[in-house]
């Protein structure tokens, strides 16, 4: 019994070490695909919100029409902004960034030269 418990504990320890292994950084292509997927997901959320807005307007319109036919008194509708159609999905990738360690050429060329160190005073005799 204790042997099985020990083996199970050892197996869990090995699995936890394997799970904590560091993954290699993503390639630029993988980062670009991830950014595009995120943009597409955001656009899908906007489209879903637009469809929900249209649906709520249809329900409200139907409610007011049916209430009017039934002779019920209704409160005025709450003023809401009109539904905004997000349009078709269009993805424009961002411009490629310079290497992290490299300074932009314009900044490097415009930087003033470092002032010369002042000469040390001569020692008195």
Can you describe this structure in just a few lines?
The protein has 125 residues and is mainly α. Helices cover 54% and strands 0% of the residues. Residues 67-104 are annotated as: Disordered.
Comma- or semicolon-separated keywords:
mainly alpha; 0% strand; signal
Helix proportion of residues, in percent?
40-55%
Q: Could you report the average pLDDT, rounded to the nearest whole number? A: 80
**Cα-based radius of gyration, to the nearest Å:** 33 Å
Assess the beta-strand content as a share of residues. Answer: under 5%
Low-confidence stretches: 108-118
For the record, give the distance between the C-alpha atoms at the N and C termini, rounded to a whole number: 89 Å
Largest sheet: none
Could you tell me the number of beta strands?
A: 0
Number of helices: 3
Shape: elongated
Structural class, judged by helices and strands?
mainly alpha
SSE sequence, one letter per element: HHH
